Amino acid sequence: MKGKLPVFDFEPCVSCSVCVLACPFSCITLSVNGVDALKNLYPKVDASGCTGCGICEKACPMGAIRMDGNA
Amino acid sequence: MVSCMGSILEVDLTSGEIKKTKVPDEIYYNVLSGKGLGAWYCLKNIPAGADPLGPDNILGITSGALTGTGALFCGRWTVVGKSPLTGGWGDSNCGGMFAPAIKQCGVDAIFFRGVSEKPVYLYMDNRTCELRDASAYWGLDATEAEKRLTEDSQKGKKLPRVAVIGQAGENRSCIAGICNDGGRIAARSGLGGVMGSKRLKAVVLAGSLPIRSAQPERVKELSSVMGRKIKRMLVPPVSGAMLPMVGRMMGLPVSFPMDGAMSGMLLKKWGTPMNQALAVVSGDAPLKNWSGGPKDVPGANKEFNPDKILAMETAKYHCYSCPMGCGGMLDTGKVPGMEYDETHKPEYETMNQFGPLLVNNSLDSIFIINELLNRAGMDTISAGATVAFAIECFEVGILTKADTDGLELTWGNTQAIIALVKKMIAREGFGDVLADGSRIAARRIGKGSERLAMQVGGSELPAHDSKNDGHLVTHYAAEPAPGKHTVAMDLMYNAMSLCDICSWAPPAKLRNKKENLEPTETVALATAANACYTMMMDGAGGCYYGEMMGVHTFKLIEYLNAAAGWGRSGDDYMEIGKRVQTMRQLFNVKQGIDPASVKLPGRALGYPSLRSGPLKGVKAPYAKEQVSLHWKVMGWDGETGVPAPETVEALGINALLEMEVGA
Ligand code: SF4
Ligand code: SF4
Ligand code: SF4
Q1: Is residue B46 domain-shared with residue B165, that is, in the same domain?
Q2: Which of A60, A68, B382, B448 has CA 20 to 30 A from B189's CA?
Q3: Distance, CA B180 to ligand 3 centroid (Å)?
Q4: What is the DSSP string of B64-125?
Q5: Whose CA is nearest to atom 2 of ligand 3?
Q6: B219 domain residue, yes or no
Q7: Which CATH class is domain A5-69?
Q8: pTM above 0.95?
Q9: Cβ proximity of B338 and B364 under 8 Å
């Protein structure tokens, strides 16, 4: 059952990796570089493994994830 | 406690038996998880007189009560046990991604006893839990072993998380730590040597169980408010070259309350290396083995300008659940003489211990030594202090080239320092003499060398001068794991507003720094309150830099209440901290440590006093009285430092020690 994919909003995201650990399928990595001047890494989803379960969205403390992407 | 898993894993490495056992809920209620749970278990189960490197010692790997709940700054794991360095209580904590992995395997802690016949590692996931042959990994450095263990044990996409020892731990060095995430290290107290003595190479965790909290929405709300504040925090538009000016201000003889967010701004930009440029000027950094002033390390501010490090940074590094990211990965491909292309950004402690403390003015050598020691799994604080000790022994003629395998161990001889570090890691020649820290080295060398070892109770002093931060006069000596700056400092107390959550913590006020060196009840209340708060925070799995942001930013009490579904007050939580601190001290007493004999070396108290710099002439003449007052506030005997029976009873410790883990 594949639904929507998570979409990350880097504005509120604090690069905390909570979503990385929360994803039961290890689909998220912090790997997007170059978004801010401090060189913080930001999350990215591996669409091929994502089931669209939404666990990451619930776990994110910053409200930085929306299940909105196209699978 | 809802946010804890309620169980621990007990592993007997001699018999190979593994048991998952339930922990009574009263234990969490009284000591939380992490260091508190570890203190309870070790005080109860490590017999008096246990050989720290023998089968009776227990090595505990613990997670925090808030870890994995979505609480920010709560991704620290803590290793506990009897320290081979001090002979008493040992603990150390570390970040990275390992802490939540413990709980995701369904336990709050893993306790190892016994000694395995052959090298092994523990593998654990949701269903499996077994000891596996580690002979293929024994002998590898920690980073390489972690990489291979991760690859070899990965099933599907779930990335296992690994805590592992390097050569220092394998060689049972008393200053070895335990590593994870390619160079983060739980460094202090020598517990990596304990792990090596058990022939336990690694702990590999691949569970994915959920971690709950009683009020997840409230936890999220607290995180979101703090996270937004930190995200928006402006990074000051100052260059690294301007930091010495800030250091000059910090070096003024006044101590004053400030908003902890100040330090957060600097850490967010530079990480801890920002402190190097401040510390030489302010008097925070001990120089030339605690005997020098800024004039003795000319050029240090320029050489250690943190902007140079920023220019090498490829990405920031955040521990799990950290919104700040004081860490960073550096591209070291162009560092002359460096074998590795990457290293974790060195911490201030590492920089000072191998830089100005040794009059070594080479930033490049810091990267080399940082990576060597992180891979070997050796504490950079203890190793640097021990090298400083050796250099001064050489300079004053206690050692000669005949003792040092031909090394010209003079101040600032960068190549000799690097060569010596390699020998210490390999326990080769003169390196073997130094590989267990400075107190043991002084015993081996003799000739009155112990006066040059800057250690307290066996533990080397870190890179903060106690004459500058008077609370450290107490903490370095009175802390059950002595010689640590991470339990509390005046600097931290000024930033925390502890008086707003604790009825007996005095407010920080503008005052002369000298007042911190006097035996007053105000100072003792502040040092005791800070230590108790830190114990409680360690039980939660919190980070020291989160703590430093102050109670109005990092709302630990609210977090714990929301995660556990409790409605407890700040004073209640401070009592938890006092209980844990008292248990750690009881552990020392049980193991035959005489707290009154744990004393700072003369230089740390201004005997002889410095002849130049901001600490010129500063003395701390009341160290004994300061420690005694601190003990009294803790409810311990002011003369002996032994917790008073009434205190032990009032804290309910005896009843807790009677409780057992169950099937
Ligand atoms: S939606 Fe589920 S599977 Fe996809 S990234 Fe989020 S947690 Fe992982
Ligand atoms: S959990 Fe949220 S804030 Fe943290 S890294 Fe993921 S998206 Fe960013
Ligand atoms: S502030 Fe630094 S040490 Fe603390 S959790 Fe964040 S990255 Fe780790």
Answers
A1: yes
A2: B448
A3: 14
A4: -SSTTTT-TT---EEEEEE-TTTSSEEEEEE-TTHHHHHHHTT-SEEEEES--SS-EEEEE-
A5: B326
A6: no
A7: alpha beta
A8: yes
A9: yes
Selected for mutation to probe chain B from A10, A15, A20, A21 (highest B CB count within 10 Å) is A21
Please give the Cα distance from B616 to B637 (Å, whole number): 34
Q: What is the pLDDT of residues B10-43, one digit of tens each?
A: 999 999 999 999 999 999 999 999 999 999 999 9
Assess contact for B25 and B6: CB atoms under 8 A.
yes
User: Looking at the structure, do residues B450 and B476 belong to the same domain, yes or no?
Assistant: no
Beta carbons of A24 and B208 less than 8 Å apart: yes
B595 and B622 assigned to the same domain = yes
Q: Is the pLDDT of residue A1 over 50?
A: no
B358 is a domain residue: yes
Q: Do A40 and B316 touch (CB under 8 A)?
A: yes
Tell me the longest C-alpha to C-alpha distance in chain A: 39
Query: What are the tokens at B270?
Result: 């530079």
- Rounded to the nearest angstrom, the gap between the alpha carbon of residue B592 and the centroid of all alpha carbons in its chain is 23
**Domain shared by B454 and B480, yes or no:** no
Q: Which of B76, B326, B349, B548 to mutate to test the pocket of ligand 3 (most atoms within 8 A of CB)?
A: B326
CA of A67 to the centre of ligand 1 (A): 9
- Domains of chain A: which residue ranges? 5-69
Interface pTM, i.e. ipTM: 0.96
Residues B492 and B620 in one domain: yes
pLDDT, tens only, B443-486 = 999 999 999 999 999 999 999 999 999 999 999 999 999 999 99
Q: Which domain holds residue B475?
A: 471-658
Query: What are the tokens at B155?
Result: 């099933």
Q: How far apart are CA B636 and CA B646, in angstroms?
A: 9
Residue window 9-68, chain A: list those with CB within 8 Å of chain B: 12, 14-18, 20-21, 24-27, 30, 33, 38-41, 46, 49, 59, 61-63
Closest chain A CA to residue B315: A39
Asked whether residue B88 is domain-assigned, the answer is yes
* Residue B651, domain CATH: 1.10.599.10
In chain A, which residues have their Cβ closer than 8 Å to the Cβ of B101? Answer: 21
